[in-house]
Design a protein that fits this description.
The chain is built from 5 helices and 7 strands.
Length: 155
């Protein structure tokens, strides 16, 4: 990958416009298919807040590299590929490769592929794009039930 000497942000660096080639419909379709089968669209916990995130993890390094190139064309940023070696009771698993895109880059990527995805993934992406964040804390169910009963009792 060509990297420009730009600011690093959470494993990303801005890539000069001249470095980023035009993206084809075929590339977007290929990436959407990969994300449909192997992608994860979520709110990633970063301390007390949540950040939109797209993640792909698999054992095929060549596929992750190709996805990374296409993602770079969409987001105008390069993204780190993490190599993960299995340990413990999973040490017999093959090593995997992961790319995670977060923040504005993840939102840009989601907007680009959402029309090409199936209903379940489209719904999840639209939840994220519309700002429906994951709860900050687990619900205190007994307290929630008590409050609901009080509201009903008080009319």
């Amino acid at each position: 990958h060509s990297r420009s000497p730009a600011t690093e942000q959470a494993g990303e660096s801005v890539v000069e416009e001249s470095v980023v080639a035009k993206i084809s419909d075929l590339e977007v379709g290929w990436l959407a298919g990969l994300l449909e089968g192997e992608g994860c669209f979520r709110w990633h916990a970063t301390g007390p807040t949540h950040t939109p995130s797209v993640q792909i993890e698999m054992v095929d390094e060549d596929v992750i590299l190709r996805a990374s190139i296409i993602i770079q064309k969409i987001t105008k940023r390069s993204h780190n590929i993490n190599h993960r070696q299995s340990t413990g009771n999973r040490s017999h698993y093959q090593p995997s490769f992961r790319i995670q895109v977060s923040g504005d880059s993840a939102l840009k990527l989601m907007r680009k592929v959402v029309p090409l995805l199936g209903a379940r993934r489209r719904q999840r992406i639209w939840q994220i794009l519309n700002g429906h964040k994951a709860p900050q804390k687990k619900l205190d169910l007994p307290n929630v039930v008590t409050l609901a009963v009080r509201r009903i009792a008080n009319g």
